[in-house]
Amino acid sequence: MSFEKNILCIGAGYVGGPTMAMIAYKCPQYRVTVVDIDPERIAQWNSDDLPIYEPGLEEIVKTARGRNLFFSTEVEEGIRESEIIFVSVNTPTKTFGAGAGMAADLQYWDKTARQIRKYSESNKIIVEKSTLPVKTAQAMERILTSADNGIRFHVLSNPEFLAQGTAIKDLEDPDRVLIGSTQTPEGLKARDVLVEIYSNWIRRERIITSNIWSSELSKLVANAFLAQRISSINSISALCEKADADVEEVARAVGMDSRVGNRFLNASVGFGGSCFKKDILNLVYLCQYYDLKEVADYWEGVVRINDYQKERFVLNMLNVMFNTLANKRICLFGFAFKADTGDTRESPAIFVAERLIEEKARVVITDPKALKNAMKDLENIAGEISYVEDPYEASAGCSAIAVMTEWGIYADLDYKKIYRSMAKPAFIFDGRNILDHDKLFEIGFNVFPIGKPGLTHF
Ligand code: NAD
Ligand code: UGA
């Protein structure tokens, strides 16, 4: 069967897998191939047990896989056969050399550019899907054109705005799709090819275009603004706890101003996820590079407040549990960085678990989807950690429960039964404000929400 276009995506991760599955699902006329250097990941994409948990993903993969969606490790063949290549490799924070701990590590990106150059036999459109420092497209174009073999490459920026847990909904009905291109006739022509792909299911007015640097920068700024809202409300949660105010009431009052808006104002133990911290630090590094110290400091404050919030959470546990956690069993309800995902990257639960172990607590972890990742995250931590799927079993014999992830199931548990099985006095630290605090207090728990006065029986 012949297809209208051959699309390739390099990188079969949380972004590459779902975005390509959506394109293939919506556009049966295109052949979509996703390649990765990790054979285990590709094998999982080809199995019934997909490598990531995302509501709705399995259905669309099952519909398109084998029809016009293919997962493979054949990077070379994939490059040769496609005219459009999305690059969705990881761009973590650099851990070595100049910019360590801040700048983006572009080694996977650079390697991909060289592979594309090496194996290409015809002109191609290259689409940056990964989140990158501004001006990366220029570096990409320089690497690609250095072969001097007459093959033309046009690099577009098309950042991904999906959030994990809602990826399928976000891909199917996005607030916007952003496509940045050079403003030359060839650049605009390449841009129109990508606009046409998305137009298969997204209304044209939601597909916005811009110059390529604005597009690259918009992605970093969008994440910085979202994270800033969380750090803003989290900073106020600390004040609420001192001032006997209720952070949810404050957030509601502030968020009802339509200029502010009510989303992303949930105070929490801190934000996690693979991107917020890395993208803000990337932005901070860029500002420092351009000698904009005040701007860099401003955005770095968002990360500093997040670190403060996580530390504050642990210190509060220590403080109210009579200044010692040694030998106490503490159960973490949830380990994923947010609900509806098994992803634990930068999850505040990692920090909290490590700090509790430092205090010599015995940590029990329960999570409906993230236990495997939790085990990997904590495998090098010396201390008593157990992993238990059932929350009732996990919390039995514990002195405290700390809610780390806003999984809906935790709000619906039988807390009378849980209370009976716990060591006394029993504590609950609700790092997500999802539980009924008054009811828990009535049952007998000492309850510590975020940004509200604690409820204690002492
Ligand atoms: P990921 O780590 O889940 O996936 C990246 C994949 O790329 C890995 O499977 C890795 O094996 C593969 N890879 C690396 N080098 C390769 C190469 N040379 N050839 C083939 N495969 C290679 O990462 P992710 O979460 O999908 O993120 C990818 C990019 O998208 C990052 O830049 C990230 O900032 C951005 N982003 C992520 C999200 C998210 O929700 N996770 C959302 C928006 C944007
Ligand atoms: C975030 C952005 O929302 C996406 O638009 C972006 O594409 C993505 O990063 C990325 O670039 O990787 P994601 O990290 O998947 O998506 O999830 P969010 O819903 O943004 O949540 C991030 C963290 O903030 C989670 O730990 C969540 O629990 C926390 N959060 C969120 C709060 O603590 N309070 C809130 O009000 C909202």
Model description:
This protein has 458 residues and is an alpha/beta fold. It is 43% helix and 14% strand. The strands form 3 sheets. Strands 3-2-1-4-5-6 form a 6-stranded parallel β-sheet, sandwiched between helices. A 6-stranded parallel β-sheet has the order 11-10-9-12-13-14, with helices on both faces. Helix 9 packs across helix 11, helix 11 runs antiparallel to helix 12 and helix 12 packs across helix 13. The longest helix has 32 residues. The radius of gyration is 24 Å and the shape is elongated. It starts with a strand and ends in a 9-residue tail after the last strand. The mean pLDDT is 97. The structure holds nicotinamide-adenine-dinucleotide and uridine-5'-diphosphate-glucuronic acid (UGA). Nicotinamide-adenine-dinucleotide binds next to helix 5.
Give a brief description:
With 458 residues, this protein is an alpha/beta fold.
Number of strands: 14
Q: Span from first to last CA?
A: 74 Å
Tell me which ligands are bound. nicotinamide-adenine-dinucleotide, uridine-5'-diphosphate-glucuronic acid
Widest sheet, order of strands? 3-2-1-4-5-6
Question: What class do helices, strands and sheet pairing give?
Answer: alpha/beta
- What is the average of the pLDDT values? 97
Report the portion of residues in β strands. 5-15%
The coarse silhouette is elongated
Report Rg. Answer: 24 Å
Helix content: 40-55%
Enumerate how many helices there are, as a single number: 17
Q: Which regions are unreliable across 5 or more consecutive residues at pLDDT < 50?
A: none
Biggest sheet layout? 6 strands, parallel
